[in-house]
Design a protein that fits this description.
heterodimer, A: 167 residues, mainly alpha, Four Helix Bundle (Hemerythrin (Met), subunit A), 6 helices, B: 396 residues, two-stranded antiparallel sheet, two-stranded antiparallel ribbon, 4 strands, globular
Chain lengths: 167, 396
């Protein structure tokens, strides 16, 4: 049951991911990206990380992608009108992609040799309590650093937005 | 009993009740608005217009389903579907009552109790924006696009005070599961003040409730925040180009969102299925008393009829009410019906508030709406959350 669900949503994620690149209209790409986010959330859920799944939907599918769609609609961006792929891209695209995937596979093999198969339902540390405890004890420093980083981004956005009013 | 069979039965029951409420909520809204404006409202189809929802459904089903030639077809077809699905989704985690015994086992009056129940509701409501946004964009119409832009900006803005208002009762209850949230609110101070989150120490969530309700108005695009479909500015906003059942599904989504918001408010702040005062002080007899009174009222008017047909119809209504009162008085079914009654009473009252506000307040201007979210509600929500955190830390 879990394996079937995993296969279904993994396929959806990959197809949507390819669709993001293939589609010529930004809104269609954005909708496909929402599909990727949603199916990733389901995969997290299958692995027992329910808090992460909910956060994935709330933050990525719910907030960030809404902003994406909002901005695309606000700018009224039309479909892509370019001539398509350049000669270089046509020539090198597939080989470079295959080389990149091969390299990734190689590194994963070297870094995690002989790791056993993922067991669906074996992991129980994904509750909100467990994640919260981990964030505020073991990973407190990265957590705080990231919040400062986000604060800087927010300040930057405010500075950019205020520039016109001050002068 | 088989888990799947049980779930199917529960889902069918909840769906049937939810869809009936959906249809009749519109009748109730039209009636209440009409009475606020001193006119009778729907009156022709059935007694007091009671069959009006059915007539509306038939009308909408038989209307021509137009697809304008200038739309983006796939997204245009997908949008109303998305809107209604996300609107109906979150009812799955809302607890309607306690545990029910049946021969051979017991089950909870809830479709499913997730340990991330609250986050699930937030996630579904944050995805719910897409229905409206994409509908406006796919229609390829200026007014629709403006409506959906307004809607997405509004929903993103109000999501913040909404989530912050939700976080405060979370601190009190220390759980994300909605069932445990309600169980945490059981009990009474001094024997009569319920320990609901609105009244619960160390930090009563009265401000939180107000914030949550106001944000819920905005999230459901109801007056006074119905800018996305402001008919005197935008024709009809995001659903201008829709007809027949696609049009209806946007309306159903709005009403379903209303019901979900009210049920969530009940669960988070007003103690869910728990009674207003303890059973030792007679809260078990409230529904019986209400139905007896209503029956007596109908019977009195049946005996002193204003019109000829009242002589038969009103006593029939009275008998129905008396039967309902009798049903609530039987101890065997009380354990099932009483929680449902209290849950429905609280949710129904909140729904009435939604309609009442629609009959009372005018629409905000758009800049007022945004300023209100960011400059008033957001700071208050942050202060409320921080105060709650400090109080919880100090006193419990």
């Amino acid at each position: 049951m879990d394996a079937i669900l995993f296969l279904i949503f993994a396929v959806i994620a990959v197809v949507c991911g390819i669709n993001v690149v293939v589609q010529s209209h930004p809104i269609s790409s954005a909708i496909s990206l929402i599909g990727v986010m949603g199916s990733l959330a389901v995969l997290y859920l299958l692995l027992g990380a329910e808090f992460l799944a909910a956060a994935q939907v709330i933050v990525y599918a719910g907030a960030i992608m809404v902003l994406f769609v909002f901005v695309i609609m606000l700018l009224n961006a039309g479909g892509e009108t370019g001539r398509g792929r350049s000669f270089l891209a046509q020539l090198l695209g597939a080989p470079v992609l295959i080389a990149f995937l091969g390299l990734m596979a190689f590194f994963v093999q070297r870094l995690f040799p002989g790791t056993e198969m993922v067991q669906f339902g074996a992991f129980h540390g994904g509750t909100a309590q467990a994640v919260g405890r981990a964030l505020f004890t073991q990973f407190l420093l990265p957590f705080e650093v990231i919040s400062v980083l986000i604060l800087i981004a927010v300040l930057g956005a405010i500075v950019l937005a205020r520039k016109e009013f001050d002068r | 009993m088989n888990f799947f069979l049980l779930s199917a039965i529960k889902a069918a029951l909840v769906a049937a009740v939810l869809l009936t409420t959906l249809a009749y909520l519109q009748w109730v809204e039209r009636k209440v608005i009409a009475h606020i404006q001193v006119r009778p409202g729907p009156y022709r189809v059935g007694p007091h217009g009671l069959l009006q929802p059915l007539a509306d459904v038939i009308k909408l089903l038989t209307k021509e389903d137009l697809i304008p030639p200038h739309v983006n077809k796939l997204v245009y077809m997908m949008a109303p579907f998305l809107a209604i699905v996300t609107a109906l989704f979150s009812i799955a985690v809302i607890p309607f009552g306690g545990e029910v015994q049946y021969p051979g086992g017991s089950t909870w009056m809830q479709l499913t109790d997730l340990n991330i129940g609250l986050l699930f509701v937030l996630a579904v409501s944050s995805v719910g924006v897409y229905g409206i946004t994409l509908a406006g964009w796919a229609s390829n119409n200026k007014y629709s696009l403006l409506g959906s832009l307004r809607s997405s900006a509004q929903m993103i803005s109000y999501e913040l005070p909404f989530s912050l208002a939700v976080a405060a009762p979370l601190l009190l209850a220390n759980t994300l599961s909605l069932r445990e949230m309600v169980q945490h609110q059981a009990g009474y101070y001094l024997g009569f003040i319920p320990r609901w989150n609105v009244f619960q120490g160390p930090m009563p969530q009265i401000v939180g409730l107000a914030l949550f309700l106001i944000a819920a108005f905005a999230e459901t695009n109801r007056i006074p925040f119905d800018l996305p479909e402001a008919e005197n500015e935008l024709v009809a906003g995001y659903h201008t180009e829709y007809s027949s059942m696609k049009f209806a599904s946007f309306f159903m989504a709005e009403y379903a969102n209303m019901i979900t918001s009210c049920a969530m408010t009940t669960t988070l702040f007003l103690g869910g299925w728990l009674p207003l005062w303890p059973a030792s002080a007679g809260s078990n007899y409230v529904p019986t008393a209400i139905f007896l009174l209503a029956g007596a009222f109908a019977l009195y008017h049946g005996l002193h009829p204003a019109r000829r047909k009242d002589r038969i119809s009103l006593p029939v209504v009275a008998v129905v009410f008396f039967l309902l009162a009798l049903m609530f008085a039987v101890p065997a079914v009380q354990t099932v019906l009483l929680p449902l009654f209290w849950f429905a009473a609280k949710t129904g009252f909140l729904l009435f508030v939604f309609i009442w506000v629609r009959g009372t307040l005018p629409r905000f201007r758009y800049d007022q709406l945004m300023a209100f979210a960011w400059k008033v509600m957001f700071p208050i929500a942050v202060v409320n959350l921080m105060l709650t955190a400090v109080m919880v830390e100090l006193f419990s």
